[in-house]
Every structure is written in structure tokens, then in C-alpha cells.
Amino acid sequence: MASRSARTWRSAALRGLGLLALATLATTASAQADLRHARDNYLLHCSGCHQPDARGKPSAGIPDMRATVPLLLATPAGRAFLIQVPGTSASALSDAEISGLMNWMMPALIGRHDVPAFSTEEVGRYRRQPLDDVSAHRAAILNDGASTTPDKATGASPGPM
Ligand code: HEC
């Protein structure tokens, strides 16, 4: 009797472990699917201008985001600008897709692993504050950034662009 209940217990425990392993696998798989979805969205909606690796084409007015995004991240207005800029805010993507895209892009393309995640709510808030004059607003933010220390992650110095 005792050994039978021990066996029952053991098989229940093993089943529990199996379920736990499955749940962990499912979570990992869905996180990976989210990342793939974010990368696909970037490739479909952004890379035509920004290039697959975010280098852009500065000679044609498309900034090299690997250099400019860290500078913009230095101020709250710059963080908002990443979402308010027409390429992002006027895209066909939902707020949730944009937050996923940004949270994928920061480490994957910009090389920044320390950026607080964008929430869907934060994206929606910035998106509802469109900019009147994008290039003047951008220049003002970057000039504000010039008074702060050079960005440690890139070693770039936030001088005139
Ligand atoms: C039609 C070309 C084009 C497309 C498509 C585009 N962008 Fe842009 N993006 C630009 C230009 C040009 C700028 C510079 C600011 C400006 O004049 O709008 C820019 C600026 C940015 C910036 C701020 C960096 C900086 O230095 O100003 C971010 C972040 C950004 N884009 C993200 C995106 C994302 C994300 C997508 C896709 C959802 C996207 N863009 C699609 C052209 C584009």
C-alpha cells in the first residue's frame, strides 16, 4: 500500500515536472516568436529606408540610427522622438507592435542592452503627440544632448550632426 502510494506520488510529481517543462518551452517559444515578429516588422516597414542593420543612408537624409538613437535616448524628449518621428508613428503597426519592435531593435541593431522597455501605453501616449516640425524638433533635442557627456556605449560625441 505504502509503496503503491509512493509510486502514485512519484508519477504525479513526474507528470508535474513534465508539464512545467512544457510550460517553460511554450513561454520560450512565444518569446522567440515575438522577437521574430518584431524583426519581420522592422524588415517590412523600416528597413527600406533604414537598411536591415540600421545604418541608413546619411547622404540621402536617412540617419545612421546606430549613432543617432543613443544620442536621442539621452533625454526624455529624445526617447519620445523615437516614437513620434513619422517613420514610426505613421507606420501601419499597432502600438503593441511598435513597442515590441523598439524593444527588439535596441539590443539587436543599436547594441544597447540598458534601455528601459517601451510599454504599449508609452508608445500610444507619444504617438498621440505628433510633431509640427520634425527636423527642427530633432535638431533641438540633439543640441540639448550636446551639453551632456559623450555617450559611453558608442563613444560617439554628440556634436552637430
Ligand atoms: C520613408 C523612409 C522611412 C521609413 C519607411 C522609416 N523611416 Fe525612420 N526615419 C526616416 C528619416 C528621414 C528619419 C530622420 C528624421 C526625419 O526627418 O523624419 C528617420 C528617423 C527615425 C528615428 C529617429 C532617429 C533619428 O536619428 O532621427 C527612428 C527611431 C526611426 N526613424 C524609426 C523608424 C521605424 C521603427 C520605422 C519602421 C516602423 C521607420 N523609422 C521607417 C525615414 C524613414
From TrEMBL:
Annotated region described as Disordered, given as residue ranges: 140-161
Parts of the chain that traverse the membrane: none
Record keywords, A-Z: Signal
Origin: domain of life: Bacteria
Signal peptide limits: 1-31
Family annotation (InterPro entries): Cyt_c-like_dom_sf
GO MF entries: electron transfer activity; heme binding
Name this protein carries in UniProt: Cytochrome c, class I
